[in-house]
Write a structure and sequence with these properties.
By secondary structure, this protein is of the alpha+beta class. The chain has four helices and eight strands. Strands 1, 2, 3, 4, 5, 6, 7 and 8 form an eight-stranded antiparallel sheet that branches.
């Protein structure tokens, strides 16, 4: 699978060129789930789009330390505020991460991953990688008819010393 996004370290996108509100959302190291709940006065939901075992992109596999052709659980969701999709998120969870005490992560359904991650005191998060994406885009499964540019971020989490990768794209309805 080709790499769909051009990820760059956050300092490479020159923080000063990002609009202030965008910068605050993209670089916030806290729980995006909690921030969206606050921004929507609690009118928040998770819509599961897909969850399946598949080969991650080469870039994702390298970040997670996976062998070539090794599969991972890929979860795609929309984070909805006021019934509108504000964020598209893609999580990649290696098989080793989903064994033992973290196996419950296989069955999240319409539960927010972030809500669970940030409750665990063992949580560690890498620096952010950022990208801009022109919608519509084949790797973001949304029916957005009006072309627009959205910002994305991703980071590698370690939970109980096990890795998982989360990418989040802030959609036009998101009031940045």
């Amino acid at each position: 699978m080709p790499e769909p996004f051009a990820w760059k370290p956050c300092h490479a996108l020159e923080r000063n060129r990002l609009p202030g509100a965008v910068r605050q959302w993209l670089l916030d190291r806290g729980s995006l789930t909690e921030r969206l709940k606050q921004a929507s006065d609690g009118d928040f939901a998770v819509q599961l789009l897909a969850q399946r075992w598949q080969r991650p992109t080469h870039d994702e596999a390298a970040l997670l330390g996976l062998r070539p052709r090794e599969q991972a659980l890929v979860r795609e969701v929309l984070l909805l505020c006021h019934g509108q999709p504000w964020v598209y998120a893609r999580s990649v969870l290696p098989h080793a991460t989903l064994s033992g005490p973290l196996r419950f992560l296989r069955r999240l359904q319409n539960q927010a991953l972030g809500g669970l991650l940030f409750r665990d005191p063992s949580l560690q998060r890498s620096h952010f990688m950022l990208t801009t994406v022109q919608l519509p885009h084949a790797a973001i499964p949304l029916a957005i008819n009006t072309p627009c540019t959205v910002y994305g971020r991703r980071s590698l989490f370690r939970l109980q010393d096990q890795p998982l990768l989360v990418a989040e794209f802030f959609l036009p309805a998101c009031r940045l």
